[in-house]
Design brief:
255 residues; alpha/beta; D-Maltodextrin-Binding Protein, domain 2; 6-stranded mixed β-sheet; 5-stranded mixed β-sheet; 11 helices; 11 strands; 20% strand; elongated; disordered N terminus
Length: 255
């Protein structure tokens, strides 16, 4: 009986160990701040469908890329522009064959929802006058994708010089959004999806697409992301269920 009990216990332990080894581990996804709401919903749906648990870190793409460069333990990088993805690719920190351009967005000018500002976005439009004594909230145009798009658009329209010294430089697009939502800045430049997610702001105008580089969100496995679960999540992000979530939040699905 003792021998039989020992044998049965050994089987149970072996099966338990195998189940633990086969169970999906937690994945770490580094995502651009503008993806916060949509990607959290995608991650929850992926896990509910039997995939691994997904842990997210949201920030400016520039900050996330530098953290990955410094050795951060991320499985997937989802950037808000191609430049920071290429930055990691040039340093062999992503798996190039897994890189995909998944989403796009629109660049918009926003104001607090109770603002009386009305302005038409066109060449040499009076942005500085609309600001008055206030400042324009925008993510850092020297590094953060949405800030770079904003500078390109304003430069193309001939108004960057009039507002360059009147900026509130935010660490990412969600912080810029918050400045306007709180009334701390009379105007700001964010993505359309961010503006739609915040009821305390309204869209004053949309920047023509030909005033800035195309807004592209690429995703890829990092050099560290070798698990089957990470590959499964990458596939899920490109699939129809995720596309439905992204469209719900206002993103343009490219694939």
């Amino acid at each position: 009986m003792r021998a039989l009990s020992f044998f049965l216990c050994s089987i149970v332990l072996a099966l338990g160990g195998a189940a633990q080894a086969d169970s999906p581990r937690e994945l770490t996804v580094y995502g651009a701040a503008s993806l916060t709401n949509a990607l959290q919903d995608v991650g929850a749906a992926f896990t509910a469908a039997g995939g691994a648990r997904v842990k997210f870190s949201f920030a400016a793409s520039s900050l996330l890329a530098r953290q990955i460069e410094a050795g951060a333990d991320a499985d997937i990088f989802f950037s808000a522009d191609t430049e920071w993805m290429t930055y990691l690719a040039d340093r062999n920190l992503i798996q190039p064959a897994t890189r995909r351009d998944v989403l796009s967005n629109h660049l918009v000018l926003i104001a607090p929802s109770n603002s009386a500002i009305a302005i038409e976005i066109r060449p040499n439009f009076p942005l500085a006058q609309a600001l008055g004594d206030g400042r324009l909230a925008v993510a850092d145009p020297d590094s953060v994708p949405v800030g770079k798009y904003a500078r390109q658009a304003l430069t193309s329209l001939g108004v960057w010089g009039s507002v360059a010294e009147h900026l509130v430089r935010a660490e990412n697009v969600r912080v810029a959004l918050t400045y306007v939502a709180r009334g701390e800045a009379p105007l700001g430049i964010v993505y359309e999806t961010d503006a739609r997610a915040e009821p305390k702001v309204k869209i004053v105008g949309m920047f023509p697409e030909n005033t800035h580089l195309p807004i592209v969100y690429p995703v890829a496995l990092t050099a560290h992301g070798m698990s089957a679960g990470a590959r499964a999540f990458l596939t899920y992000v490109e699939g129809p269920q995720a596309a439905e979530v992204f469209r719900h939040y206002g993103f343009i699905v490219l694939r």
